[in-house]
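Narrative summary of target 7.
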Amino acid sequence: MADQTPTVHASAVLAGARAVLIRGPAGAGKSQLALALIQAADTGLLRFARLVGDDRVHLQAHHGRLLVRPAAALAGLIEVRGLGIRRLDHEPMAVVGLVVDLAAEDAERLPAASETVLLGVPLRRLAVAPGADALAPVLALLHSPDGDIKPPS
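Modeled conformation, tokenized:
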């Protein structure tokens, strides 16, 4: 099954009930944002966060939801800049609720969640400008009244 689903260069973190799929070019900070979300749970800024996958993940549409799984060879591994590869507890699968695009050329000064469609599944999307801090707007979105990151209606 893993070899038959699309693999994307992205990281994913289960934040509450839904995963945050983090995309962006090499060096944009995907792993850094994933770690920051996990640390936000450790410090109480989020109720729960756990790594799904780093660097490469598999996506699959299933009954109108987008599922994300780690690439088998990388399950539980994450790159920590300056320290190398580290092993963390991870989720084997999660439902994606939010897509964060780092270093996005279409990012606005005052970003607002918009929509994207992946494998036919509509999802909330947050575009973050190159060099901008992604953690603050992601946390703000996760803590907003509709912060359970349900797909847009």
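The first helix runs from residue 30 to 42.
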